[in-house]
Amino acid sequence: MGIKHPVQVLAVTGGKGGVGKTNVALNLSIALAEMGRRVMLLDADLGLANIDVLLGLSPKHTIADVLAGKCELRDILLHGPGGIKIIPASSGTQAMTQLSLQQHAGLISAFSEINDQLDVLIIDTAAGISSSVVSFVIASQEVLIVVTNEPTSITDAYALIKLLHRDHQVMRYRIIANMVRSQQEGQQLFNKLTNVTERFLDVTMQYLGAIPFDEALRKAVQRQRPLLECYPRSKAAIAIRGVAQKIDNFPLPASPRGHLEFFVETLVSCEVGRC
User: Fold this and answer.
1) Which PANTHER family match (predicted)?
2) Is the peptide bond before 256 cis (omega within 30 degrees of 0)?
3) How far apart are CA 15 and CA 129, in angstroms?
4) Domains and CATH numbers, the chain
5) Contact (CB, 8 A) for 146 and 154
6) What is the pLDDT of residues 71-109, one digit of tens each?
7) β-bridge pairing 120-125 and 39-44
8) Is 269 helix (H, G, I), strand (E, B) or coil?
9) pLDDT tens string 225-235
């Protein structure tokens, strides 16, 4: 058996909906691909898929078809902008929001087939703190939390961190301040969150940077194209590349956490309540 190729697994989450999480995940994927990384983006909002909608793609098959045994994972991969690969989720399929043990095992074991084809797997989770969201986050090596300067966003981000720390011993969180008016506002937002976590939780928080509110993003969404492709020199695009630079410098996890098999096993364990 040969040496397994290490893959970084990053979960992009936030607790609250509407914080721009999917746009951040998509554009970070493209930014990392620009830097030479082989990137795959998993739409893990298994009931309300939206990455394909953002890009105007019409997948013929989704994860649901893989789980049903109709096709293999490689058959559903979409070629996204910037050379990224996209794993589309099914939209409006209620059964997809509660995967069985066998379905999770079947889904993620399929990743072993493509292990040598990627360097980074980015997981765009659903909003909220459902068991599905928690499972994907716990199975990942890095937790990227997107937060905006709204009381509900800060409260929900803290609730997610508290849950992950209390019930699953997740100790490290990387914070991205999104849709802020200035770098100062982004830093203040991070400070608000850390002021609460430092009082009540024993966790490590790292600030990855601020992404400014940018009208270019709204225009890109309307055109169903990613910001980095549509407006590569916009303020938000430049900020996203800065965040990607920091992510690119994350150390690769030591074995076995650097292998997709670990991601599989942890995800399945969480679904049966063993994590």
Assistant:
1) CELLULOSE BIOSYNTHESIS PROTEIN BCSQ-RELATED, SEPTUM SITE-DETERMINING PROTEIN MIND HOMOLOG, CHLOROPLASTIC-RELATED
2) yes
3) 6
4) 10-271 (3.40.50.300)
5) no
6) 888 888 999 999 999 988 876 555 555 667 677 666 666
7) parallel
8) helix
9) 999 999 999 99
